[in-house]
Design brief:
With about 300 residues, this protein is an alpha/beta fold. It has 12 helices and 8 strands. About 45% of the residues lie in helices and about 10% in strands. Helix 9 packs antiparallel against helix 10.
């Protein structure tokens, strides 16, 4: 029987809706959070999908404060605090907890190559100073370093470190992580590799963190519930749908290009505008039109779950 933990479920790495002048689009945030709430998923702001590395402290502060105001009773709010500056991460953690965040999330600083000892010491320093629940975020695609599982396991016994989110694409690593933590009542494991969401959920992951959930949150809530009911066939059917829609904005694009493409699809759904924060840039008008057309084609194709769109 799956252990019920404090930190679990479907957590969406939310985009940051922006205005043409690169300020926070409050209406877009409201639309997005309402969509999450309708489908029973939880927001994770200021992560990789949220363009956090490109945002000023003032925009981050605006997003943190508005997200806290939009949080509904019983919901959990997760906030990214990653920075190359430890003091800035601690400042963001303090601000986040003051405005309703339930747990903060941090990846490694990404400028210097770090040894295993450096990694462990850094997260201990951050956990000691942030004065609240901390989730360790492993994402080699942006930090260019992989946090060894043994380091995370050692850190998992720190009283403020409550979970890990892993976006490294390794089946062996996923299997080992589930072996380590699926049965740990005091430590949660979230997978941030959408293509393996079904595998993770069916084998004991506490939750998933899929970027496609910005567009299709219902698919992942249904997948999570089906996994808990043991409906393997439905879980895999929903995984195929996740793969199909994820490929629409990710295939053939860099990470940065895919974030713009995701916002185009969200704009077609009426959630937010398409602006991305420099250095990211919009692609061509032709690319945008093709994305919009392809989205409607997929919605109609083979009766994909329109209620989740």
């Amino acid at each position: 029987m799956k252990i019920k933990k404090k930190y679990q479920g479907v957590i969406i790495p939310a985009v940051i809706p922006l205005t043409e002048k690169f300020r926070l689009d409050e209406r877009g945030v409201e639309n997005m959070f309402a969509n999450f709430h309708r489908h029973g998923v939880l927001p994770f702001i200021l992560g990789t999908t949220g363009e956090s590395a490109s945002l000023s402290m003032s925009i981050k502060a605006d997003y943190i404060k508005l997200s806290g105001k939009l949080k509904r009773p019983g919901d959990m709010l997760y906030t990214g605090i990653a920075s190359n500056c430890l003091e800035e991460s601690v400042e963001l953690a303090t601000m986040s907890f003051a405005h309703g965040t339930d747990a903060v999330v941090a990846s490694l600083p990404s400028y210097y190559a770090l040894s295993e000892r450096d990694m462990k010491k850094y997260f201990e320093q951050l956990a000691d100073q942030c004065n609240g629940p901390l989730i360790i975020y492993n994402i080699p695609a942006t930090t260019h370093m992989s946090i060894p599982l043994k380091v995370i396991d050692e850190l998992s016994h720190h009283p403020n470190i409550v979970a890990t989110k892993d976006s490294e694409r390794s089946d062996d690593r996923l299997k080992e992580a589930l072996h380590l933590w699926a049965a740990r009542p005091d430590f949660s494991y979230f997978l941030g590799w959408a293509a393996r969401s079904a595998v993770a959920l069916l084998n004991g992951s506490d939750g998933i963190v899929p970027s496609t959930g910005n567009l299709l949150p219902g698919i992942y809530n249904d997948m999570y519930n089906a996994a808990h009911k043991g409906d393997v066939e439905l879980v895999h059917a929903l995984q195929r749908q996740s793969d199909t829609f994820g490929s629409l904005y990710q295939k053939g694009r860099s990470l940065g290009e895919s974030l713009w493409a995701l916002k185009v699809l969200m704009n077609e759904k009426g959630l937010c505008d398409t602006h991305v924060m420099p250095p990211l840039q919009p692609q061509t008008t032709q690319d945008e039109e093709l994305l919009r057309q392809s989205l409607h084609g997929l919605i109609e194709q083979e009766g994909l779950i329109v209620k989740n769109i």
